[in-house]
Amino acid sequence: MNSSREDGGGREDGMAPTRQSPPSSRVQLEVAFLDAHQSAIAPSSPAPFDEHARLTVLVVAAESDVRRYVRECLRERTDLRVLEAATIPTAVLLAAHPVPVFLVVDEAEREVVATLSQLRAIVIVDDVPHSAPAPGARVRLLARPFSAEGLVAEVGRLLG
Fold first, then answer.
1. CB 144 within 8 A of CB 126
2. Would you say the pTM of this structure is higher than 0.85?
3. Within a 10 A sphere around the Cβ of 60, how many other Cβ atoms?
4. Which residue range forms the structural domain that includes residue 144?
5. Which of 110, 115, 122 is nearest to 94 (CA)?
6. Residue 127's CATH number
7. Residues 116-133: pLDDT tens digits?
8. How many domains does the chain divide into?
9. Strand locations in 27-130, DSSP E?
10. Is residue 4 part of a domain?
11. Which DSSP state fits 101?
């Protein structure tokens, strides 16, 4: 038996050469088209445990950077499921199911607090006025700039 390979395709063990097909260059991509209100909704991170055991928080801010920062700040609270809305109509739609336990609202979208008045809220403001709500109120103010620790502390106070 001659073990030399003339064509470069044989195997030294005498077995027939195997052909590996080239990796496919085709990719299947599914895109869901959303209306303008739904396009601002960002999916939550996968839950490490039962999704129904988590409390839903709705973050309402026109700027995606604000929504993303709030989400990152709340990451350590594994008991929270964060939904995001860029507009008040989207927030109202998302608040229908599952009903959030509270809102985190950028000052520019403060009207949503009145629209969803049955919910507790943390409103991110530039300055806290002297007539700020008392601790324990349904609406709490959080001044910019704020840290993750500051937001998580306000969440703890709001949830009691």
1. yes
2. no
3. 35
4. 38-159
5. 115
6. 3.40.50.2300
7. 999 999 999 998 777 766
8. 1
9. 55-60, 80-85, 102-106, 120-125
10. no
11. S
